[in-house]
Amino acid sequence: MNTLDSSVPKAQQPDWNLLRAFLAVVDAGSLTGATRLLATSQPTLSRQIAELESSLGIALFERVARGLRLTAAGEALVWPARQMQTAAQAVSLTALGQTQQLGGTVRLTASEMTSAYVLPEILKLLRQTHPAIQIELVASNRVENLLERQADIAIRHTRPTQGGLVAKRVGDAKIGAFAHVDYLKRVGGEVDLARAGDYDWIGLDSSNMILRGFRAAGMPVEREFFAFRCDNQIIGWQAALAGLGIVFAPVSVAARWPEMQLVLPEELVPNMPVWVTAHRELRNSARIRLVFDALAEGLQTMVVG
Predict the structure, then answer these.
(1) Which residues contact 210 (CB under 8 A, 6 or more apart)?
(2) Is the dihedral of CA 80, 85, 86, 91 positive or negative?
(3) pLDDT tens digits along 198-224
(4) How much is the pTM?
(5) pLDDT in tens, 157-202
(6) Euclidean distance between the first and the last CA atom of the chain, given in angstroms as a whole number
(7) Dist CA 237 CA 225 (whole Å)
(8) Structural domains present in the chain
(9) What are φ and ψ of residue 39, in 5° steps?
(10) Which of 3, 7, 132, 187 reaches 20 to 30 Å from 139, CA-CA?
(11) Residue in 129, 98, 111, 145 with CA at minimum distance from that of residue 237
């Protein structure tokens, strides 16, 4: 009868939380960047990496001038760690998707303008009718990864391309070019596109979304065309309210400020599609399904023209 040799070291089963810390450092390239991904402290993260290396008996990273670099052993660990990450996410999604309890948290993500000026009214009605549901809102123009549970539901203006998602197009939001009446007085009372370069336009900084819109309309402008640039759309809107120039915004939002005047014909500015998206597993959750449907209905009423 064979017996196990007690002198042979037993394989360690690494803690998933330690592997999660490892993957965050891999993705960020540094401890500092990984702390932002995990919302933790650098000492805690350093301790987790050291604990993982100790449990496995290998060095995973080496320090270089620009941060950390994977060792050969660390490189070999990435793929199986990714497999564990995928499995853990699948378990989480399946468990959440099967629950029929309404009480709990739903995490949303939407653009800054939608988060600030559109969602509060919709969420107020939702909370009044379903007070057991708690809402977390990520106001961001970045496309959050629903497959990795960075959000449960996303409101976006492009059709999602990831597989495994449920997406509903609720319509198209009318977008217009607006300026404060005081600014219009300074430029002669109206805006003439034939002299587009004579005006102060408010655009985005790193995003090329508005640039693409101009080019699609036959005006191949460059980034420097915009006198004021900021990727935060709320700041851009506030700048226009202060009379800084011409800004693009949803017509339904701009209507709240009568001093903001439409300066271009609506047909010159393309509408913006509005999509509500969730992971398909989450549609099996009564809580997620209820919030998803409430958002779709509310957005049709408040945003879509």
Answers:
(1) 203, 204, 226, 248
(2) positive
(3) 999 999 888 888 888 888 777 888 889
(4) 0.64
(5) 888 777 677 888 999 999 999 999 999 999 999 999 889 889 999 9
(6) 79
(7) 18
(8) 16-96 (1.10.10.10), 99-172+272-302 (3.40.190.10), 175-268 (3.40.190.10)
(9) 55, 50
(10) 132
(11) 111
